[in-house]
Task: structure prediction
Amino acid sequence: MNAHITQGLLLLLASFFQARALSLSTRIFYDSSNHMHRDIQYHPEQSARIDACLDALSSYMRTTSQHLDLIDVSPVGQVSQKQQNWFREPFPHADLEYARQILIDIHSAEFVESLETKCRESRQRRIDEGKSALGFIGYLDDDTYITTESFHVCLRAAACWIECANLVLNSKRNFSFALTRPPGHHATKTLPNGFCTFNFAAAASVHATKHPGCEKVTILDWDVHYGQGVADIVEDLPNIRYVSMHQVPAFPYTGQSRGVHGKHKNILTVPISPDSTWACGYHELFTEKVLPFCSSPDWEPDLIIVCSGYDALSSDELASCSLVAEDYGKMTRLLRDHLGDNAKIMFGLEGGKCPQVQHMCLKCIDYTEFTLQG
Ligand SMILES: [Zn+2]
Result:
């Protein structure tokens, strides 16, 4: 198989561990129509990333008694997997409209409406020309493409992140996962960037701070790239902290010095050298720099949002760090131990590609079993 996927699978492993510890089912949201956002040529950000994760989850549920709920939010089609824990729950119009309003809050009406209009008009033009409604539009920058359906795919992705925040904040779950694409953490207030159109982590965090009882949110970004878009948006929001571990030098070529930034001192950048491994760099910086900024006696967040990219793996084609699958489980376990058992954590997929789909599926599942027994 030559498809490249995200290492979101690793996060799922961590989620299994978390769910088991809390004796609660884990809800994982995905959109089976995400493939309508796609390039016309090879692009590392592609729907095969999600497909591979779902295949791995399907296998996992067949072979274990772990209780997972997989929620397909696509408005069309049927759940293809014949398993009892797969559901299709399209968002009602009001939820999507709410997500749209949150995106306007964090970007601007002009930004959101510009993409929406571009997609709608292009779709209508194709229909008028007798073509299928789905078509490629083009690139918004060097890396970020859109199709006629991209706006709606991204809107559902935003709604998934918001729903995950709701689930954990309402105490129905202590863990939830938005298995969505495209990623979002590079999208700034005013610009799509680095495969990202809208910023979902920022959207979920801003939504969360409107939720009763949620005063503070920390966004932890362990994607190997700096989420400069999140920093750009939350810099003005004192109730939200953002901490990023990322390879330097690497795209987007900012966040290159370690330190606290912003007028509210709410952004921490923790650069990692390209040859970092868990033992050499990651472990020390994660425990000594990242975790204390996530939560401390003078900053006790009501929600942790993890921007979960898996591109620090040694197998990734877009970065040079050398984590292995188990290291993401270690970070998840350290985070939970640092926060305590009542911590509310949601994860959302960011970057990560791997050419060895089957190998990674098996590796991740093996690791899950190991973790559950440990
Ligand atoms: Zn990345």
